[in-house]
Input
Amino acid sequence: MSIQDGTVYVLAQPEWTEREHGEVTVSPVFLQATDSSGKTLRNSPNLRDSRLTFLSGRNDTLVATAELGSTWIRQIQGPLYSKEGILEGYLLVGMGIAETVLLLSYLKWIMLVSFPIMVGVILFISRVFGGSIVRPVTALMLTADRISRENLQERVPLPKRPDELQRLSSTVNDLLDRLQEVILREQSFAADAAHELRTPLAVLKGTIEVLIRQPREPKQYEEKLRYCIVEIDRMGGLVDQLLLVARYESRKSDLKPVTIDLAEIIAAVLERLESTTRTKRMSFQLSFCDRASVVSSPLLLDTVLENVLSNAIKYSPEGSQIAVKVADSDGTINFSVTDKGSGLTPEQIDKIFDRFYRAESATNQHSGGFGLGLALVRRLCVLLGIKISIDSNPGRGTTFLLEIPKYLQT
Output
């Protein structure tokens, strides 16, 4: 299209006379040519007496929504230039959007009708099936409300479906099992401690009551007071061991591993136990490998070795010999202590690490122990990564074997 002296020349006349520009259909296409001032020079037949809206004062291409009669159209307006680049006029192209308006109208009514129905269906489904979905969570909450220190047997019922709720319920049940074990162990510990303390307290009370019933000789007072001091010392030792066991039962100690020479620790332990071994006229048969060094906690390892050696001395007959052997193995140092005591049955071996447990033979020997040493040894061995095992038969003595890792994993 070109405009010369106010006359519009259509270079492709068939395009202008196409059927779509001559009829008013659902979505007609309108054409209109104007001069630079906006005066209509030519328009498509389907416009008849109507005119597209001219947007004056703009030389760039514009797109806008306008009203044509009673119909809304979308139109584009672009400038027409001569070969010399002079603005000669504008071409306006419009297209009816009745189909779009009609579609939006239908969509509006569809949404107005379908949305309430959809909301109602969703509410119904959530009401019917939502209860079954949240039922396990409700059961979990109710069970948690019922559980207390006095009611530790309650457990969360497991849902039938193997989903996340079932795994959650199973995890909560496992947690409750561990809590119950800890609380029962604490209750047992308190009961056993009270039982062990009751006897020396009763002895002290009875001794003092006998002393104050009537005047006595100074020698008798001195004798009974010395006896009370012995019982008080015994109680103090029991309390110290109770505190030590409770400390390592409640939390993992802050381990500070260093390089340790086992020979030096064993020598220090035997030196501390020398008075006891001298009293019982006992001796040690020592066997050490060339290098017996480990990276571990010196304080805890010293406690373990002292309790094992003290236990062997305590339950061995007078004049006997205890064999102590240190051997190098693959990644571990094997420490074994063999005594010539009365030995243990398999049933006693199963219980030997329980707190306050003492074998009948050991009890009958009046060893003076509290049954806490090996319980402490077991806990410390867990902390230090030490594997402990017992080989014993009645009448043939007992061997404790400790497999000490060369490097403690913290």
